Amino acid sequence: MDAAARSSIADPSLAAEGEQRIRWVARHSPVLNRLARERLADGALNGRRVAVVVHLEAKTAYLATLFAEAGADVVVAGSNPGTTQDSVCAALVRRGIEVHGAHGISEQDWQDDLLATADFEPELIVDDGAELTFRLLEYRPELAERVLGASEETTTGVARFRALEAAGRLPFPVIAANDAWCKHLIDNRFGTAHSTLLAILRLTGESAAGKRFCIIGYGFVGRGLAQYAEGLGGRVTVVEVDPVPALEAHIDGHRVARLEEALPDADVVVTATGGIGALSNGALALLKDGAVLANAGHHDHEIDVEALQRAADGMEESRRNVRVYRLPHGRSVTLLAEGRLVNIAGADGHPVEIMDLSFSVQALAAHHLASARLDPGVHRFPAELDRDIARRKLAAVGVELDEGASVLGRIAEEWSL
Amino acid sequence: MTVPGSGQAVIGALLDATNLLASGKVLVVLGWDREAARAARALRARVIVCCSDPLEALEAHRDGFDVLPPAEALAHAELVIAREVDADLLREGAVVGGGALLPGEEARGGVIEHVRPDGTSVFVVDTSGAAHADVQALADVTPETAEAMLARRGVRYR
Prior knowledge:
Distance between the termini of chain A: 62 Å
Largest interface: A-B, 35 and 34 residues
Oligomer: heterodimer
Structural class of chain A: alpha/beta
Number of helices of chain A: 18
Order of helices and strands of chain B: HEHEHEHEEEEEHH
Number of strands of chain A: 15
Largest sheet of chain B: 8 strands, mixed
Structural class of chain B: alpha/beta
């Protein structure tokens, strides 16, 4: 049976548009094009069964294509039905890759897609939020022994994998791709923030100038959001429960406040905690009339959308991904992208150049898992590979560095004598 | 008044259509558009401004932007904001927004690929429809409407 027959997608006739999008990604992915392609060409992935479960749009499709080019048998599924692009699915199938995903499908259909992906019997998993691995271990435990390893894209997923490891339930090695320098220092901070803010401006049709932004969570995503929002003329208040990042936000020059102080004057509230329930029922009552809510974290549940629906007298979808909820006492609040990741569900996701780096981490992580035979448990992405990626990116943009060991390297050497 | 934030729509439209990153890129603003330059800088682009008027060039310089003649600036530009542009001056792969148009075929939704006689490509995004409602509302602001807006925002100024 060929890929098309095994796949479940929405509309194969959209392939031409998806193909354009993938080619655009290829044009702007110098690190994947050179470094990743070179490393994958050594045959380590030849004949390996690889599952890619990441937001199913053009950048992810390009990563899947590179695995296939390296000789792997590849299956792709979306990590969130709200972010799957049907044109890209169609183009992947035309490229001969098995795909399970369609935009806007129900939780149950999405679950079925992920189980079909598990039934592909992957040996390597590129996971996002541990969504595939969790289901494989839960519903297809007998398939776990075939898995050489997984690599994980997000903060949320790494936390889930560490919890599994602590519980003694992680049967194979996992590389915390998220924790690579070329991933979280760049993707989380700049990529998420850049694309999240632009998506908010586009969906609301307003500039950031003079707006009061409430950023909930001051991790790498929150830091980037605060920095970009401030640059665009916004005034930022940070809400954070951990004293260390809260102090960092304060010294960064942001107002730091408790949620109940921060919400009443916020024009735009962005959740970036990576957890769930950051904006819960009680908090929704504090919002001012006209407030805009958006989520930048992995879960659809950072904003308690159900509580919002219950509290509302009515809802109007003023345009796609923009829902205005009428609340008692004449207030209304606007929810973007139904509380899903606003930059991916409401736009095209992270910038291409950012995903060139993140997916180079993923490609080299998968290659490392296939060649190095690591022990079960959560592993760091090798620092030398991280440096290789940064070096290639800098070379691609024409930046040269001085040669030689760093000062800290020399100190470490002297002190270890 | 030059409406603060008025450059964000065009910069946003260029980046939305292309899915490209501004941070770290050389972005050239052809003709002094302070708000577009500021929006690009806020997104961490390395902004170069080109303007023919010495007062504008001085203003851009004093605002912390690099200022260069167009031919030199465009040789480095990865992103360009311009009302009109000479395709021959662009670096290969450059993406232009801001009103300038060049003939070509769609490379992806909203992005036109213009192939030059030497076979290299540059890209154009039609950002002419890009506008933010709050910026438009300030277009003909008077002291009276300004008072009302400030009051609505809870801003006291005296």
